[in-house]
Specification:
single chain; alpha+beta; 5-stranded antiparallel β-sheet; 5 strands
């Protein structure tokens, strides 16, 4: 388990010697804010940020590209269906994506 700093711009441990090709991102709602879905009009399902459905980041060993999927095989929003050349790029994209929806990444499990 790698704790993240309280500063949203700094993610402790993302650039360290993580070697696993599958990593789990734990999500949490920002204090005092409602978690929103893509269009901003509805509240996101609580299971996405209360531990029941973790966001997984996996590296394809053949292409070395990182992709997202939910641990429970849920349908990913279109912006998260992209492929990334490194874990840090995937992490930065997810961090920005969820920040716009009042959700933060609370920890990264290797």
């Amino acid at each position: 388990m790698i704790p993240l700093s309280d500063n949203m711009n700094t993610h402790v441990g993302v650039e360290t010697n993580l070697r696993a090709t599958t990593r789990e991102l734990k999500l949490g709602r920002l204090e005092g804010a409602r978690a929103l879905v893509d269009d901003g009009s509805r509240v996101m399902s609580k299971d996405k940020f209360q531990g029941q459905s973790s966001l997984m980041v996996k590296m394809d060993p053949q292409t070395n590209l990182w992709t997202f999927n939910y641990k429970t095989n849920g349908l990913l929003p279109e912006p998260l269906q992209g492929k990334f050349t490194s874990f840090s790029k995937a992490y930065d994209f997810a961090e920005g994506y969820f920040a716009r929806r009042n959700i933060r990444i609370t920890e990264v499990l290797d």
